[in-house]
Amino acid sequence: MDNVIDFINTNRDKYVDQLKEYLAIPSISALPEHAGDVKRAAEWSADEMRRIGMQNVRLVETPGFPVVYGDWLGAEGAPTILFYGHYDVQPVDPVNLWESPPFEATVRDGELYARGAADDKGQVFMHFKAIEAHLKQNGKLPVNIRIILEGEEEVGSANLDNFVKEHKDELKADVVVISDSPMFDRGIPSICYGLRGLVYFQIDLRGTRSDLHSGSFGGAVANPNMVLAQILAQMKDKSGRIRIPGFYDDVRELKEEEREQWKRLPFNDRRYAKELGAPKLFGETGYSTLERVWARPTFEVNGLLGGFTGEGAKTVIPAVAMAKVSMRLVPNQDPDKIAQLFEDHTKTVEVKVTRMHGGKPWMTDFDNKFVQAAGRAIQKGFGKEPVFNREGGSIPVVATFQEILGLPSVLFGVGLPDENAHAPNEKLDLGNFHGGIIASAFLYDEIAKG
Amino acid sequence: MDNVIDFINTNRDKYVDQLKEYLAIPSISALPEHAGDVKRAAEWSADEMRRIGMQNVRLVETPGFPVVYGDWLGAEGAPTILFYGHYDVQPVDPVNLWESPPFEATVRDGELYARGAADDKGQVFMHFKAIEAHLKQNGKLPVNIRIILEGEEEVGSANLDNFVKEHKDELKADVVVISDSPMFDRGIPSICYGLRGLVYFQIDLRGTRSDLHSGSFGGAVANPNMVLAQILAQMKDKSGRIRIPGFYDDVRELKEEEREQWKRLPFNDRRYAKELGAPKLFGETGYSTLERVWARPTFEVNGLLGGFTGEGAKTVIPAVAMAKVSMRLVPNQDPDKIAQLFEDHTKTVEVKVTRMHGGKPWMTDFDNKFVQAAGRAIQKGFGKEPVFNREGGSIPVVATFQEILGLPSVLFGVGLPDENAHAPNEKLDLGNFHGGIIASAFLYDEIAKG
Questions:
Q1: Active centre residues of A (catalytic)
Q2: In whole angstroms, what is the distance from residue A146 CA to residue A430 CA?
């Protein structure tokens, strides 16, 4: 491995210049006027994959933007990594808040500022360079690798499931590696081994045919706003525990080991509350903040709307009221089962409950061999033992790979919590970028070792 | 009185033509482009008052539109009526829903269709014609009358309180008569002797500095939407009773006599629910629907807003949530005291509660001599004993006259519940118009008798 690492260290500055080229392509998948740029980014990715020595590189057309595929399968008997990333980026509005143009990557204070620097071109490129170093120095990789890069991650990955289904045989692997997430904190490299799932609903209530005057009719009829408030209020008790019968039945309790690990993380409730501008934190009693966010399910009212909401006072009893609610789920809660429990619980009154999107929770045991291999690689790349954390959010592709291919995923991200992934001034720490390339190079080696 | 009634019967058709002129003036006080028309309606009112024989007629300027004043004070020793009405009208949008142009009064099936036909030009004009009949036939009225007509009723009567305060001495009277309300139902003339009051609040909650992702932060912080729902839900119990401590302390219980009267009214819960398009009626147990609307206080959530309310699903924990709530009050609840009770009850959590407009409840005992005089006049004008009802809504000027002048009001309205006062196709039943002129002529006589 020494010659591989030497190569990476020697070429450190060149990598930044190469990455700048990739970042210069405004591949904003959400904006039709950038469709040509998105395709250009696909082609640039494919060209780069060929340059670094990947084989069978091609664009696979989908009803949307193409998936870039390439592989290197010369490590007979070794495990196969399926690497997933994306070449599309978020929009850049409001562009006037950017300190440097979003598509002219600029280095300031050791950070590379550009749209896509962290999410996800920079982290994809990190693997390109790790692969290149192996192939250039040794003519081979310690593992087999298949790469797929999609161009629709920022707009919901509508065509990814189908792509994976249709190419199931070509995507055979042992583990998925995804580098599209931040570390726990600056200087604290981490491996994420669990994500929450989601069920999302819209609740619609109708009381009367049309809005009524609250003077002439107040007292005669139920007020949908009030009924909605009552429905929502009864979903949680004062200690923050969700009251839907059966809701917690399948929740996998935290292991003592996990709790111990997380307790050691540098996390301070008061500082966190201050950062969020919250008077204080709140949640289910009996669990720390990180435990609640990473390993406990939630019930959130995402939206509320009913009646008169403009300036001033209007004395109306609304005809209709609406709420959007969602529940984050943890292993082993099943979205379908939870959806059913919620609907059963809600339908004690006359309401319309519409289920919207959702996804299963996910987790790999943190003593899984691939997770541990990733941990060793991070330690070698960053000179520091990583923390093993879970995440409160959901990454739908992880569920896709789990369900369609039956593969575990390793989330091997080197972004930072303040990377501004979907905001102005997105950035990638160049120290993390370099450490990430080395860690990636080691990752292949560690996975090969098993 | 016979010659007065004969005069009214003889001129019946002419009245409709005269009223059409009044209705042709688009005196929409809410729209600046109609300011000239509003003034024109004031002048038309003054001219008409001079024509029918009123004295001291003049426009009194205010910071908004003028108040039209006129009097006839020749009935020495007799009581004095202060008649209040308004010459401004509601906007007419959406104008394409009108079956005939809103300012070209049109008769169809015995109804006169025009903006202002019922609210309030038609009902003001009814009194003009009753006064005219007395003065033309007898040279005098049985009572003294002062008329004030305002031009800002449809935009909140912002200048009326000051006008009444400044002209307190010129407005001396024994009773206020207002004809600006509907009857109980077609064919059921009624006298309204009670109104509810109002307190109105906006509740604002802030959880965090900005919206948060419900995946990454769900479980860490309280959700303002949920806290709002919990605040609102605890305001009422399942039987519809308001749970604010002390809320009912000053509520005047219904008299057995009132309950008996109202029980005899032709009112059917099922038909009413069907008219409103409500699955069923709902309210405080132990009271009939009419009792709840006319004589019991309410707590209504007039508006709800928080988080994501567009199409689809967005996983957000909102930074802020807002509700508009109001309580209808009944005698002898005091808005200031109720506001204080509400604020005390709400501020068990950290919220911003802003008190908006409001008004006191009002009622005259229904055996009050003026109310009874009005009842006899209605019976003579409509050939039918009126019902004595209360109203769920509020008419702020009634409180103004009560508070500033210490005068009781008689609500002597001949509109109909389906008159479309603030909607397209406003109309006045011509039978009620004619009966109302006769009843008004008798009203002066009955009030004079005491």
A1: 88, 153
A2: 26
- Residues from chain A that touch B315, judged by Cβ atoms under 8 A, are 198, 200, 300, 302, 326
Give the HSE-up count for residue B430: Cα atoms under 13 Å, Cβ half-sphere: 19
Determine, for residues A209 and B272 on separate chains, whether the beta-carbon distance falls below 8 Å: no
CB distance A326–B303 less than 8 Å?
Answer: no
**How many whole angstroms separate alpha carbon A360 and alpha carbon A329?**
7
C-beta neighbour count of B239 within 10 angstroms: 9
CA B244 to chain centre: 27
Option in B214, B299, B302 nearest A326 (CB):
B214
**Spatial distance between the Cα atoms of B194 and B202, rounded to a whole number of angstroms:** 27
pLDDT tier at B347, thresholds 50, 70, 90? confident
- Is A85 strand, coil or helix? strand
Reported as a pLDDT band with limits 50, 70 and 90, residue A157 is confident
Task: Verify whether residue B153 is a known catalytic residue.
Answer: yes
What residue type is B105 in one-letter code? Answer: A
Mean pLDDT value across chain B: 93
User: B223-237: per-residue pLDDT in tens?
Assistant: 999 999 999 999 999
User: Which residue type occupies B322?
Assistant: M
Structure confidence at residue A349 as a pLDDT band (50, 70, 90)? low
Q: Does the beta-carbon distance from B326 to A315 stay under 8 Å?
A: yes
Q: Is the pLDDT of residue A400 over 90?
A: no
Contacts of A230 in chain B (CB under 8 A): 229, 232-233, 236
Catalytic residue selected from B88, B119, B419, B426: B88
Binary contact (A324, B313; C-beta < 8 A): yes
* DSSP of A117-146: SSSSHHHHHHHHHHHHHHHHHHSS-SSEEE
| B204-214 pLDDT, tens digit each | 999 998 899 89
Map B327-341 to HEC letters.
EEECCCCCHHHHHHH
- Per-residue pLDDT tens digits for A142-151: 999 999 999 9
Q: Report which of residues A241 and A402 the model is more confident about.
A: A241
d(CA B370, CA B366): 9
Signed CA dihedral, B414, B416, B422, B425: sign only: negative
Specify whether the CB–CB gap between A182 and A322 falls below 8 A. no
Question: Cα separation of A421 and A57, whole Å?
Answer: 28
Examine the pLDDT at B366 and tell me if it is beyond 90.
Answer: no
| Interior angle at CA A23, CA A21 and CA A24, nearest 5 | 65
Instruction: Name which of B384, B415, B411 is nearest B111 in CA terms.
Output: B415
Residue of chain A whose alpha carbon sits nearest to that of B230 = A233
Q: Are B130 and B440 in contact (CB under 8 A)?
A: yes
Q: Which of B48, B111, B150, B153 is catalytic?
A: B153
Chain Cα centroid distance, residue B180? 7
> How far, in Å, CA of B269 to CA of B289, rounded?
7
Task: Please name which of A220, A198, A196 lies closest in space to residue A207, comparing C-alpha atoms.
Answer: A220
- pLDDT tier at A47 (50, 70, 90 boundaries)? very high
* pLDDT of amino acid B181: 86
Tokens standing for residue B137: 């036939």
B233–A236 CB contact, under 8 Å: no
Q: Which chain B positions have a beta carbon within 8 Å of A284's beta carbon?
A: 219
Chain A CA closest to residue B315: A302
Q: How confident is the model at residue B355 (pLDDT cuts 50, 70, 90)?
A: confident
Inter-chain touch A281–B220, beta carbons under 8 Å = yes
d(CA A327, CA A300): 6
Strand partners, B65: none
pTM: 0.82
> Which token pair is B327?
């309580």
Q: Can you say whether residue A386 is alpha, beta or left, with left for phi > 0 and alpha for psi between -120 and 50 degrees?
A: beta
